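Notes to self after the Tuesday call (sharing in case useful).
The group wants a holo model before anyone commits to mutagenesis around the pocket. I volunteered. Ligand is magnesium ion. Logging inputs and output together so the record is complete.
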Amino acid sequence: MDLRIGNGYDIHQLVADRPLILGGVQIPHHLGLLGHSDADVLTHAIMDALLGALSLGDIGHYFPPTDPQWKGADSLKLLEQVHGLIQSHGWQIGNLDSVIVAERPKIKPHIAAMRDRLADIMQLDPARIGIKATTNEKLDAVGREEGIAVYAVALLIKPES
Ligand code: MG
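Result:
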């Protein structure tokens, strides 16, 4: 059995008149995340962790923000493609873990729904998807509610062939 680990990081600005989508779940809030796609910062960090584990580059390479094709894109659809790429190389996900750093809104009530959506897209047991949330203790841009950041780690497994 072969193992690989990858990490991903992403941050998006919080602005008015945008939906707040994390892990494919729309969360009620007066601000949302700015981006070319739906700006789902959690899904973006997870995709980068998956790609990083196999040295396949990053999401900017596959879904460049300059390409109008990805304007307003549903990031779960992009994750589906990235997961397919991982599988086409003969790898499967051992587990994922992530930390959402947001001052507001409260993320915890939405974590179960995010895990279910991500698990569904990757045909994974939700128990293999860790999502945690913390504030930035009012420090820096995230602490001033100017954005939301996410750190993610992925462990990939290639079964003995
Ligand atoms: Mg992003």
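Two things stood out.
The radius of gyration is 15 Å.
The chain has a mean pLDDT of 97.
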